[in-house]
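Chapter summary example.
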Amino acid sequence: MNRASRFWRSTVGKKIVMAVSGLIMIGFLILHVAGNLQIFEGANKLNTYSAFLHGPANELLWVVRIVLIVAVAAHLVSAYQLTMLDRAARPVPYAQQKLQAATIGSRTMRVGGVLLLAFIVVHILHFTTLTVQPAPMVPGDVYGNAIASFRIWWVTAFYVIAMIALGLHLYHGAWSSARTLGFEQGNANPFRRPVALTLAVVLWAGFTIVPVAVYFRWVS
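The structure predicted for these 220 residues follows.
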């Protein structure tokens, strides 16, 4: 316990926890987008997939949910504590900053993280608990609920904006996690991050195409 406590109290320990929890969430996102894209195969395919997750595989789904909840909590706590440590180390901001390797993703990590947390809450209330219903929704009819919701312009706009924030967060987060864990070595060009860029673009596109396709009636 003492070793675990010392590990958590250290800056390096918090960064490792943040990196590992981030990679767990990326893994979930890959599975999630693969499930979402089944909307292009029709109502039966998507609703059957959803029923499967809530049927015999329900126990496994709860294991995944618990792991994901722990990862999200660990990510949030470590991010907050690292922010506080950073501010405590430098209570007076620099008079002038020269950002040599900063990207939009790195500069918006904190704000983007807060926005994504808010989006996750709304998304769960929207499609999981059906508490928020911008259009009439039917339990179990994931396909119909998606069609009804994303035909509303402001719902689609909300999801598209949130996915832009996700893409930016992933671009820096995936690269930063890999570097923290030693998978990414130093590069003469700090902006050359092909794996992080590919991952961010693919996930952003995969999540964004669903509401956009429904809104423009490419899916009906």
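To summarize the output: The radius of gyration is 19 Å.
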